[in-house]
Amino acid sequence: MLALEALTKSFGDKKAVDNIGFVVERPMMIGVIGRSGAGKSTLLRMLNCLSDATSGSIRFEGQEITSLRGPQRRNWQSRCAMIFQQFNLVPRMDVVSNVLHGTLNRRSTLATMFNLYPQSDIHKAIEILDRLGIAEQAAKRAEALSGGQQQRVAIARALMQDPQIILADEPIASLDPMNAQIVMEALRRIHEEDGRMVIANLHTLDTARRYCDRVIGMRDGRMVFDGTPEQLTTGVARDIYGAGADFSETATSTEIETLDRPSVREAEAYV
Ligand SMILES: Nc1ncnc2c1ncn2[C@@H]1O[C@H](COP(=O)(O)OP(=O)(O)O)[C@@H](O)[C@H]1O
Ligand SMILES: [Mg+2]
Questions:
Q1: Residue 180 contacts by C-beta under 8 Å, 6 or more apart in sequence?
Q2: How buried is 114 (Cβ within 10 angstroms: 0-12 exposed, 13-18 middle, 19+ buried)?
Q3: Residue of the CA atom closest to atom 3 of ligand 1
Q4: In angstroms, rounded to a whole number, what is the distance separating the alpha carbons of residues 195 and 28?
């Protein structure tokens, strides 16, 4: 149903995504892993047409996505909703209005200006919030919620679009372990119960192993692994993350995590 072929994105001389190709035959939960700068975000952004491919192709159910323009492109963007590490909610707006923003694509400018939502959309928003266990937060401002709750609001907003694909760019990178688990379980449930495809950029191997059916490993823009969590051995992890990483059986997820922490990213920016 989804097929990428020789997908490439260059920024000047640098290939952020370099000749990526894979086929997804049925809705799966896919984890994309790799160090900071490997090209994970650029890949997701191309899938969602937030960024144009330099070359190559993305096909979904037979339709070429990279050449879509105008209303067709917006239609595609509503079929593959995106969620982000920083949630991207409107902080001062109440939760239910944030969720209703997920319907923006199909509302008139006038209705949007006056915040006019059909009753059926409001019911649907509450239902989705309830499904995610946060209906009682509906009237609060988004900024009053914990990070884990805010990410669930972002997922609810994505679900308002009734997307076939949910693209999640490091959805748990800003969350504590308990909230990370709640959010990953919510994504997993949405995948299993609704049959939606989920593609999530994740920075820890453990998370990818635990929640995903398939894992894609990226390094320097290239795909260096595509397989099941069981196939993701220590040797493969070393290929993905580089020889410096410690992937012995005793290595903790914390050690692996440090590879992609903001402080490490900042440090990398100076070398
Ligand atoms: N808008 C941009 N302009 C120039 N370079 C970019 C831009 N976006 C990403 N890059 C570069 O592309 C590479 C991949 O980035 P990114 O996709 O953000 O990686 P990841 O999400 O795996 O950390 C990095 O080297 C990054 O610096
Ligand atoms: Mg990224």
A1: 148, 172, 207
A2: exposed
A3: 11
A4: 8
Q: Model confidence at 270, in pLDDT bands (50, 70, 90)?
A: very low
* 139-192 confidence digits (pLDDT tens): 999 999 999 999 999 999 999 999 999 999 999 999 999 999 999 999 999 999
Residues 6+ apart with CB under 8 A from 100: 117, 121, 122, 125, 160
Please tell me the predicted confidence (pLDDT) of residue 260: 45
- The reply to whether ligand 1 has any atom less than 6 angstroms from the CB of 216 is no
Q: Dump pLDDT digits (tens) for 113-143.
A: 566 788 889 999 999 999 999 999 999 999 9
Domain spans of the chain, in order of start: 2-269
Handedness of CA 246, 252, 257, 258 (dihedral sign): negative
Length of the chain: 271
Fold of 2-269: Rossmann fold (3.40.50)
Q: Which residue did the predictor score with more confidence, 149 or 269? A: 149
| Ligand 1 atom index nearest CA of 169 | 21
CA of 263 to the centre of ligand 2 (A): 14
Bridge partners for 200 per DSSP: 31, 168
Dist. CA 56–CA 5, nearest whole Å: 6
**What is the whole-number distance in angstroms between the Cα of residue 33 and the centre of ligand 2?**
10
Distance from Cα 171 to the centre of ligand 2, integer Å: 10
* CA-based nearest residue to 217, from 84, 50, 35: 35
> Under a CB-based contact definition with an 8 Å cutoff, are residues 27 and 61 in contact?
no
Report the residue among 42, 50, 218 best suited for mutation to probe ligand 1: largest number of ligand atoms under 8 A from its CB. Answer: 42
Structure tokens of 169?
A: 């760019």
